[in-house]
Amino acid sequence: MATLATSQPSASAGSADETSQPLIALRGVAKTYSSQRHGALRALDPIDLDLADGDFICVVGPSGCGKSTMLRLLAGLDVPTEGRIRLGDKTINGPSADVGVVFQAANLLPWMNVRDNIALPLRVGGRQKVPEARIDALLEMTGLSEFAGRFPYELSGGMQQRAGICRALARDPRILLMDEPFGALDALTRERMNSELQRLWMEARKTVLLITHSISEAIFLADKVVVMSPRPGRILECLDVPIPRPRSYDTLVTHPVYAGLAREIRARLTQAEARP
Amino acid sequence: MSSIAAPAKSALPRSRNVPSSVITLGGLVALIALWQFAVTRLHLPAYILPAPLAVLKALWTGIAVAPSSPLGWYLPLWSTLRNATFGFVIGSGFGLAAGSGMAESAVIERLLMPYAFALQCLPKVAIAPLIVIWFGFGDGSKIAVAALLAFFPVMINSFTGLRAIEPERLDLMKALSATRLETYRLVKLPNAAPFIFAGLDMAVVYALLGTIVAEFLGAQRGMGVVITQAEAVTDVAGVFAALIILGALGMVLHSLVRLAEKRVVHWSDRGQNQGGRA
Q1: What total of structural domains would you count in chain B?
Q2: Which residues in A lie closer than 8 A to residue B277 (C-beta atoms)?
Q3: B167 and chain A: CB distance < 8 Å anywhere?
Q4: A156, A213, A211: which is closest to A185 by C-alpha?
Q5: B274 and A106 in contact by Cβ < 8 A?
Q6: Contact call for B172 and A101, based on CB within 8 A
Q7: Residue of B269, B274, B277 to mutate for A, most A C-beta atoms under 10 A
Q8: What three-state secondary structure class fits A209?
Q9: B276 phi and psi angles, rounded to 5 deg
Q10: Strand, coil or helix: A259
Q11: Which residues in chain A are closer than 8 Å to B184, comparing Cβ atoms?
Q12: Which tens digit of pLDDT belongs to each residue from A151-184?
């Protein structure tokens, strides 16, 4: 369960268990980028957010709402200027093997074949022997086995991102951060990738935080949709998605809560855009 | 001398009906015809412009001898090729090391960059006489001048290529807690490879140039010596023949680098179709 730690903690519906500690807790986390040319830029106003173990969170919001900043902070690529992020009982202040990142447009290394790309996280950071069986299992799981020896430029965008997901999973992290992973794909491929991601998530039960521009993608995938607004970035709303799994695009839009949820998210986003 | 070469691009679109090799060969035939015409009709003396046939004869005399004959092309060609190759390898090696050092360390960059650019503007063959004084008339000075000329394009191109890394790729390595050496070896160096090969492509031709210039200044053997000796007895056909040999050598070396590039940088020009980047 993701809970917005507002004035009444854990007041949100569902199985929120006050005794269980969230896997990730953001407390008053803010980020200001300072550059000599542009001065200080407030990317993220202080936010509070909890991610429980096994949650699937989707973050939606217009450009500049700080969602990518939030992901970078969770990935340990940047350090918050205020507040702190706790992962279990540790504070995140750098990259961690518990966190896997899926980048926009896969971000595979073009000089490595699919297998080597996926094995990259197991080769670096002082690791010695690459467990080939682990790579084989990941390839098998995403249907890439027969493409292991291919290079990224020989793959479609969807297959590239499958490899990107495998790479993020290589170290078996507890948390998967995904930054608009399917934004570069066509609509049909995107829906297929979403279904696959749902299947993977239901099998592996990782905690996932996925950034997207697509409202339908967010509702399809998420347990909780976090709506953010820009300038400076902050969390507007945190909505439950009470649609049972496994979800299917065939029945999603006809589900009784879908239309209401989509309308609410869209209204929030429009409201965020309209603000001066 | 130019500094930064863009990574090699694929060939221009061919014209529709005529194969490009026919056009190239046709141009050569036309040039030789014009040459023959100039010699016979304008009555140019042989010490200004020898007839194509005389050049061909001079070329053949050098080829048709035993490889160990001092009259043939083989011994001087071997000497020049060996020195140019050593110079190329040494110069490129130092160029890659210096370029990497500057790209990886702000201190080294600040230390070397201003001088690198100042030297870049200096016509480096002008240093050749000095190098001959230091290294003598043997192979050492030839290798040193070749290395000096090969050094700069590789250094500048390595530096540029290593800095031209997409931030997402660095983010990837950072998220994996990769060490600097791992990031350099697995990401930055391959990423810079197209740039480095463009530098090597220039360097191999410059190394040959440097060797010949050093040979002009004084040497016991080499193609530069062949040219100066032919020039001394106004054997212009011999000079032309030596130039043809050198041109062919340059083409072969250039092709070898391009071949290596195709093998190593097989993803270039095709790896760009990953979305997100233009």
Answers
A1: 1
A2: 105
A3: no
A4: A156
A5: yes
A6: yes
A7: B274
A8: strand
A9: 90, -30
A10: helix
A11: none
A12: 999 999 999 999 999 999 998 899 999 999 998 8
| CATH value at residue B186 | 1.10.3720.10
- The pTM (predicted TM-score) of the whole model is 0.83
Contacts of B190 in chain A (CB under 8 A): 109, 111
Supply A55's token pair. 């949650």
Residue B7 inside a domain? The answer is no
Structural domain boundaries in chain A:
108-172
Chain B residues with CB inside 8 Å of A130's CB? none
What is the residue range of B139's domain?
A: 74-267
Q: In angstroms, rounded to a whole number, what is the distance separating the alpha carbons of residues A71 and A168?
A: 14
- DSSP bridge partners of A239: A225
Give the up-direction half-sphere exposure of residue A249: CA atoms within 13 A in the CB hemisphere.
14
Give the number of A-B residue pairs with CB atoms closer than 8 Å: 84
pLDDT, averaged per 10 consecutive residues of chain B (278 residues), comes to 52 64 91 88 84 90 84 91 97 96 93 86 90 92 95 95 94 92 94 95 95 91 92 91 94 94 82 36
**Backbone φ, ψ for residue A91 (5° rounding):** -95, 130
The answer to whether residue B111 is domain-embedded is yes
List of chain B residues whose C-beta atoms are within 8 Å of the C-beta of residue A110 = 267, 270-271, 274
Q: Alpha-carbon distance B160 to A245, whole Å?
A: 51
Mean pLDDT of A96-102: 91
CB contact under 8 A, B186 and A124: yes
Alpha-carbon dihedral B14, B16, B22, B26, rounded to 10 degrees:
-100
